[in-house]
Design goal:
Blueprint (H helix, E strand, L loop, with lengths): L2 E4 L3 H18 L4 E4 L6 H12 L8 E4 L1 E4 L9 H13 L6 E2 L8 H14 L5 E4 L21 E4 L2 H7 L12 E4 L2 H5 L3 E6 L5 H8 L18 E5 L10 H9 L10
Parallel strand pairs: 1-10, 2-3, 2-6, 3-5, 6-9, 9-10
Antiparallel strand pairs: 4-8, 7-8
Helix pairs in contact: 1-2, 2-3
The structure holds 2-amino-2-deoxy-6-O-phosphono-alpha-D-glucopyranose (GLP).
């Protein structure tokens, strides 16, 4: 079962996960982070940036982004290359050469997934994968129906995802139709998963991911297959969990030898 941690707000979630990443890096300077985009992980990146400003050294940390749009230039401000540069590499002072984003350019797209998988394996795998969740239950861009065994590949975005992401573009018509995303199988190979979600719009996806049946119709339910998955949510995102009292009880009685997330 995934560990469910209910926090007061986004800032508290950011602080909690940043603290775990700091502990991870203290034990492994060149730890490999799996990097999500979207609004959800921003509090984590902000909290880490504050720690970096105070002296935390992340310069040896390596990273793999979850996904990228296909069909927009790398330099487009909303390409995940640009977002990862702006929100992660810069503020966290990571080495740009050590952070990989799937290659969504048309040239060589058939082999881009395989190349990305090789790079993850060559790095020794992802130590901690940060995840958000789409309102339709997707993780990365693994839309409903994605195989639990899938690896990095091109996926067609659903109408719902394109509408959700239209806020980053001038209109929904400008949201790319395709993406290249780590597969559910890729994500499940990470040593630890941390899925974050905030707000009532995510409550259904969180309940389905944590307590619903294991089904490709809810890609985030794949986290139930992972032995070390934590779900960090605010009260609104937690509001449809049937066993909420149990999770709160389990967390407040967490044994001291069992550290949070890491
Ligand atoms: N590809 C990304 C996902 O990685 C992200 O988790 C999800 C939720 O986005 P947000 O965090 O902005 O709600 O949407 C996007 O489609």
């Amino acid at each position: 079962m995934a560990e469910v941690i209910v926090v007061r707000n986004r800032e508290a979630a950011g602080a909690l996960v940043a603290e775990a990443i700091e502990r991870l890096v203290a034990g492994k300077r060149d730890a490999v982070l799996g990097l999500a985009t979207g609004d959800t992980p921003l509090p984590v990146y902000r909290a880490l940036a504050e720690r970096v400003a105070l002296g935390l050294d992340l310069s040896a940390v390596r990273g793999f982004a979850l996904d990228e749009y296909v069909g927009i230039p790398v330099a487009h401000p909303e390409s995940y290359h640009s977002v990862i540069d702006r929100e992660v590499i810069g503020p966290l002072r990571l080495n740009p050469a050590a952070v990989h984003v799937p290659d969504g350019r048309a040239l060589g797209i058939e082999t881009a997934g395989e190349r990305f998988e090789h790079a993850i394996v060559a790095a020794g795998g992802v130590d901690l994968q940060i995840l958000g969740v789409g309102t339709d239950g997707h993780i990365g861009f693994n839309e409903p129906g994605s195989s639990f065994a899938s690896l990095t590949r091109v996926k067609t975005l659903t109408k719902q995802t394109r509408e959700d992401n239209a806020r980053f573009f001038a209109s929904v018509d400008e949201v790319p139709i395709h993406s290249i995303t780590q597969g559910l199988g890729t994500i499940l190979r990470a040593k630890r998963l941390v899925l974050l979600a905030f707000g009532a719009a995510k409550a259904h996806a969180i309940a389905a991911a944590v307590e619903g049946p294991l089904t490709a119709s809810v890609p985030a339910s794949a986290i139930q297959l992972h032995p070390r998955a934590s779900v960090v949510v605010d009260e609104e995102a937690a509001s449809m969990l049937l066993e909420l009292d149990y999770y709160l009880d389990a967390f407040s009685n967490k044994p001291t030898w069992d550290p949070v997330i890491i």
